[in-house]
Amino acid sequence: MRVPRKPLAGDDVKEFIAGLESILGPDGAVAEYLDEYEYRPGQIAMASLVARSLWEGRVSIVEAGTGTGKSLAYLIPAAYWAVKQGAKVVVSTNTITLQEQLINKDVPFLHSVLDINFEVAVIKGWSNYLCLNRLLNAGHYDQMTLWEGESWEFGALLDWVKRCKTGSRSELDFALGDQLWGAVCAESDACLRNKCPYLERCFYFQERRQAFEADIIIVNHHLLFADLALKRVLGFDTTWSVLPPYRYVIWDEAHHVEDVATSYFGGSITRLGVTRLLNRLLRQRSGRHTGLLPHIKFLLESEDEVNPTHKTRILEGIDDQAIPALISAEAAAVRFFARLNQLIEIKGTASDKVLDLPPTPGAFELWEAMAPERKSFIEEITELASILADLKEKVAPMEGAIWDTAKAELGAIWNRLAGTRETAEFLTGEPDHDYVYWAALSGRQREPSLNAVPIEVAPQLRSHVFQHLQGAVLTSATLSIDGSFKYLRHRLGLDLEGDMTEKHCLQSSILEDIVESPFLYEDQVLFCIPTDMEVPRQGRYGEDLAKYIGDVLLATSGRAFVLFTSYRLLNQVHSYCQGLLQDHGILALCQGKDPRGLLLEKFRGDKASVLFGTASFWEGVDVPGETLSCVILTKLPFQVPTDPVVAARVRRLEESGQNAFTHYMLPQAVIKFKQGFGRLIRRSTDQGVVVVCDTRLLFRSYGKTFIQSIPKCRMMVAPMEETLDSIKTWLRCGDNSSLPRTYYRRSADGSEGVR
Question: Where in the sequence is the domain holding 316, given as residue range(s)?
Fold first, then answer.
């Protein structure tokens, strides 16, 4: 039984830091609970820095190498600080995987170890939760006109709700279509709140009540920025936004903060989104009308106590005004998006079907070519929203639980129509020169969309986020470039000039630290660069690459990730390797053929397998052990220069006299490169090979920036054939006990290679 320990949190941060050894030290509380505990001085160093951020009200940036144990390093000071000060700490992650690790593994462990009682809550966005009111009303015979789902889906959902814990869609243990989930999930603008008969049992509000009582709230970056967007309108300490008031944030996976913020400070409309919204009002399928308007008509026709004249006015308003206006809006939307689709196909870039819009120099003047369709679309959406507002007033006196739900649904659709109109006016109106605008055909179905995001989010992050925070921590395994955080500070607005309006975390200097991984990379990783691989370009590169990758995968007996920067090259190499690998009993899995989760499940279940993947597999994937013994990076992951946001940022930097490659393109690529490299070693017992098939690492001046940004490891710089022999030797040696340590070494002149 563990001996009770003296409470750690003192009045002074120095007192807290001095006591960290009693938790994370070799004889501390964590060591007592773990049989195979490994003492990590870097973990204590990081926990100390996080503590200073909270106690002193400052920003800290911590790059924590793989294996540091960064989750515990920030959760421990966050728990003590929150309990001692009565101040909530928000922990934000980018991936669901890390979020689930925190709540299912790290938090329960700390509850058993620490000498304090602290509460933790997880909050997801509204639509992640089932709404009991919408579900049970949809199941009522009066409500069956609201949706078109199969009866077995609805029955399975009713059975599931009896056994689920949180009502979150992630808990579903059977396949459920988006249409039915969309009809029964929680929505902020369709919520009855205090009028809901199921309020006390509401899954969303149960989680939210826990969040108001919790010391630590775990969210993802997207939800945090959705909350920040509301706070910009309602005030930072409002209780009406997604999260309860907070002043301290810890961003894990913080290298994603800029991208997520960019999307939330922008706007977008899609054909699919508009179509689904209008279909909620009325849709005809298989000779049957479904949707909210026929449902309201059904309710009215079933009412005996409503004034006949009033009933007739409402029914006539639906038949003579709402439905015709809806039909006109649908027709206008069809014309608008059909014309948009046509122009993107004609004027957009051939490869990715993206059409740059003003104020981008030389961009196509889309709204001159679409003036009639634009005018009609906005006018018809505006007219429909106006008629729905009138209908809302007419049905407002109706009473009863079913009517409350119908009125809430009507209000939600009206609200979203108004938002669609505002977004459309912003996207198609006079362009803001601080934004980049574009149209695109996206996804497998090539859905047309209009988009606009700020070119730089640093000023908005400083004024709308950091100005209101009294403590902030940014951490990840990949934040520094060649040992410096200068790039991150600049991109997030942490180094902007000028004071702000209230006490905030940037009034003192930023705390920084790079905590190196405890792993012995020089014993665990062989880093190979084939010197006779052609520089990436059109031509023979794909063929040479495919042949070499096939040879490497045979040498490793599969057990590899092959990571690409484009689907074109991925498909080319996979097509070449698939038959070759199959002949040797190696399964060749390919992104795009199956869902991401299923691909990982198959890979983990078959040690003789290879996964060919693009962007989403460069990070956030944890496959420890021999199952993953090789990572092949086919190309340095520079962003596509024609991407509208990338091009706009490059142009803005060049206009200000800066070198866009040095200040933007290169740092972005290095961070992605470090993520790809980091897929290989996840535990201290892992061993394997990283192969980079891009000789720009050797022959371009910037190559050293990539190499100096990853942990030091054994390097093999040689022709392709020689690297294959070394790969076989390295993997055959297992724990390296039979491999002379002098075989792989650095030369006195600093060059790398096999001696």
Answer: 269-348+365-430
